[in-house]
Here is the input.
Amino acid sequence: MALFLLGFSACMEQNRPIFRGAEVEFDFAVLTAPVGGLTFPRRTVANTVGETEFRVNFVSAHRAEDTFVDVEIDPEFTTAVEGVDFTLSDTRVRIPANESFGFVTVGIINTGAIGGFVDVTLKLVDTGDVIASPNFQRVQVRITRPAPPADPAG
Here is the structure.
């Protein structure tokens, strides 16, 4: 009887939903827990690191043509100044045809030993037929700066 039921149920048509949309997300946001009090993760780097890169995942079937995704600086969660503390490689991420991801690079400017830290928060933006995942559309870079040397005159 059990074999009959198993065999009978294996042939039943199953209506599973198929995702047909196009969505993008930051890989780092998917793999890393959010920072306490925020809904997105943070990568902490020294101001001497040079640059840090984030992968943008394309969550859909591959496309025959390149897909472009807009990236913006989220002013609500950013204290760093573009051109002073960091540079952004581009405000559009290119996901090549027949690929699943592209990259955005944040250049870290060495501001010297002035102490403290600043934050820059990137946000993926909906672009027509491609939407940004509401849960994984932001990442933050915290740029730490060493404290200045102690004054020997004291």
Notes: Residues 2-10 form the longest helix (9 residues).
